[in-house]
Amino acid sequence: MPTLGVAMISRNAAAHLDACLAAVRWADRIVVLDSGSADNTLDIARAHGAEIHVSVDWPGFGVQKNRCLALLDTDWILALDADEVLSPELAEEIRAAVAAPKADVYALPRLSNYCGRWMHHSGWYPDFVPRLFKRGAARYSDDLVHERLIFAGEAVRLQHHLLHHSFDDLSQVLAKIDSYSSAGAQQRLARGERSGLLKAIGKGLWTFIRSYFLKRGFLDGREGFILAVSNAEGAYYRYLKLMYLGEKQ
Q1: Around Cβ 172, how many Cβ atoms within 10 Å?
Q2: Residue 227 per-residue DSSP state
């Protein structure tokens, strides 16, 4: 049988890590690359038999995930985030795909939870994410944030859900808005992009309209509205930060 390894990066990821790792204990190897957790993330990882590596510098999500991929020598790699849990049906589907592969890359249908609600609209679903691939067939982009898996050809889509506990509460939402908007502004500055106040306002308004109306976020109830607002805030602050970074430069 071909071997399967799980690649995961972590930092203070204890909230859902136990469920995440319990769902993949059947894998041949589990590698966790940690960037300096201060909670019990590493204790949970050890309890599930994961191989732990630590890299305290932070080069961005893309580079860190590629570092983690390089630690595996299995035939296949399943790349997971520490807040994602395989449904039992998806685990069976992955085992079948590895045993009799029909492609080099597979995309998993992700269903995300936002502040206690599973989101079926708002641009969050269906959300097919390529995560299962033959070793050497894919790598991550070097982006600081919103990294993407790079590979040739098309990914075959699996059918059963990858459950994503994206945000447990609004404090997490606000923290991610701040950190991701900063990283996004830095990425855009490096590409030579510039911004101003009107652009920031326009990006925020358009993001709300797209999420709440065009992507039918209103069908996700109150959380659909809250998500649309937080998405708009993320875009607004990203381009405001880009404006100030450009002025300093």
Answers
A1: 16
A2: H
